[in-house]
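Readers of this paper often ask what the protein records in our data store actually look like. An entry from our holdings is shown next, in its original layout:
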Amino acid sequence: MTSPRLQTLILYARNMRATAEFYCMHFGFASSLEVVEGLIELRATKGGAGLLIHQAAKSVKLGQAGVKLMFDVEDIEGFKQKAAAKGLAFGATHQANGYAFANAKDPDGNPVAISSRGFRA
């Protein structure tokens, strides 16, 4: 028996299309942006987990720090410059044990981060 693997994350959104477009524009996901079975599917074009965008119920509290999506980026400052040109501002770059990271928020206030941790020596 094989071990389960994380393949897909579901994100709840107030505006499904805006959230899907955000992840496509800034993090390279591909999508038709069509709502199928109540979900918008985003495919990771360079490997990694896919995302399903689901309509959030009014009772769902978004923007909490219970989950943060972290994307591996080798050149943090270069990525931040490209993201800023497309309207996404990351906070300060923080240095950790041999890697750097920076934080931002998606349209629903959910935390996202870029990190060079996966590329450290």
User: Anything to note?
Assistant: The chain has two helices and eight strands. Strands lie at 8-13, 29-30, 39-44, 50-55, 69-72, 94-95, 100-105, 111-115.
